[in-house]
Amino acid sequence: MSGPRRPPASVAKSARKAAADPALAPTQFDLFPVKPVVDVLDARAVVGPRTGVEHLVRVRLRPNDAPHLIFHDRHGWYCEAHGPTCHTVTLAREEVRVDEVRLDGRDEQIGFDDAAR
């Protein structure tokens, strides 16, 4: 006489995994969302004139939170405390991209003659 049959290990593992993962709750929206504070700093003034840092950005997710310092240098974009996977790196990159477009003056280069072509 043999004992009770067990399901194969792969079935039991997948069943355990499904039971352990709770259903994801829908995202809750803030009634008054707080916009992150993003300050683009002058890297040469903060770090020094011989620095290799191209962009230096200070990001606060909330006005009273501790700042994240985001560097862009030969190693790429990264947060000083959390590394390249930090959420604030994306915010800093977007802000630098917007500032570069503003400083580039692309809006001023388009005249009436260019628009007619």
Describe the structure.
This protein is 37% helix and 18% strand. It has 117 residues and is of the alpha+beta class. The protein has a domain at 37-106. A four-stranded antiparallel sheet has the order 1-2-3-4. Strand 2 and strand 3 form a beta hairpin. The longest helix is centred in the last third of the chain and has 18 residues, at 87-104. 9% of the residues are buried.
Number of strand elements = 4
Low-confidence stretches are: 109-117
Oligomer: single chain
* Helix-and-strand structural type: alpha+beta
If strands are numbered along the chain, what order do they take across the biggest sheet?
1-2-3-4
The radius of gyration over CA amounts to 25 Å
Number of helices: 5
Series of H and E elements: HEHEEEHHH
Entry keywords:
disordered C terminus, 5 helices, 4-stranded antiparallel beta sheet, alpha+beta, 18% strand, 117 residues
Summarize, please.
By secondary structure, this protein is α+β, with helices and mostly antiparallel strands. Helix content is 37%, strand content 18%.
SSE order and pairing:
Layout: H1 9-20, E1 37-41, H2 43-46, E2 55-60, E3 68-73, E4 76-79, H3 87-104, H4 106-109, H5 112-116
Antiparallel strand pairs: 1-2, 2-3, 3-4
